[in-house]
Specification:
By secondary structure, the protein is of the alpha/beta class. It has a domain of 152 residues: Rossmann fold. 38% of the residues lie in helices and 16% in strands. It is built from six helices and five strands. Helix 3 packs across helix 6. It is rod-shaped and about 155 Å long. The protein starts with 7 loop residues before the first helix and ends in a 9-residue tail after the last helix. About 4% of the residues have low confidence.
Length: 226
């Protein structure tokens, strides 16, 4: 048999196919390489935001009602026995007493005006927890002649008080408080001129001293002087 010879046309056709395949492979590898080289590296996972620090809850404060239950109620009342005496003076004594009682964390102070002794006792009897401090202003015996017929000068007055027990109305404490100034060296009182202005100051101090005696009677510690 004679040997067959490849025609130039067939050889050229095969060679073209091979070139096309090589070109396609080259393009494919190039696009893959470019895609890989242009790809951004993935971001590392971010840590979650830290939680805000836990705020401590403020301490629970007891209610005002609870505070009142822990205090001893004391009602301060006064009676105007002398007709020609100004109501300003018992109010000065009452204010001094209330101011002093309010400095104690163990007393709940209240007030009323111009009640006679029986009315004050009835208030104490009708309460289960409230002491009633009743007081009136009287003229010092040594100054009766100098007081005159008209209005009574405040420098001639002193305080007479009684403290009534809740539920029974019985007297828990009583006494007289006289006008006196601040204490000097050795505890001696410092004398003040007997004038209307100084008497008002001293009457207020009478109220503060009366409050101290009440706290002693109901076994409550006196607050520091200020």
């Amino acid at each position: 048999m004679g040997m067959k010879h490849r025609t130039p046309y067939r050889s050229a056709y095969q060679f073209a196919i091979v070139l096309c395949i090589c070109g396609l492979l080259l393009l494919s590898s190039t696009s893959i390489s470019q895609a890989q080289s242009g790809r951004k590296p993935p971001k590392p996972p971010t840590a979650p935001d830290p939680l805000p620090p836990k705020q401590e809850e403020p301490p629970i404060k007891p209610s005002s009602d609870q505070d009142k239950k822990n205090k001893i109620p004391v009602k301060v009342v006064w009676h105007l026995q002398t007709v020609n005496l100004s109501t300003m003076y018992p109010r000065i004594v009452q204010d001094g007493c209330l101011d002093r009682l309010s400095q104690s964390g163990s007393v709940q102070a209240g007030a009323a005006e111009d009640l006679n002794r029986k009315q004050a006792i009835d208030i104490a009897k009708g309460s289960t927890d409230t002491y009633v401090l009743w007081f009136e202003l009287e003229i010092d015996v040594a100054d009766i002649d100098r007081a005159g017929i008209g209005g009574v000068p405040p420098q001639y007055l002193y305080v007479r008080y009684e403290l009534y027990t809740p539920g029974t109305g019985k007297t828990k404490s009583s006494g007289n408080v006289y006008q006196r100034g601040a204490r000097g060296p050795g505890g001696m009182p410092v004398p003040l001129p007997r004038s209307n202005g100084s008497a008002e100051y001293l009457l207020r101090n009478c109220g503060r001293e009366m409050a101290d005696r009440v706290m002693d009677a109901i076994s409550v510690a006196r607050p520091p002087d200020r």
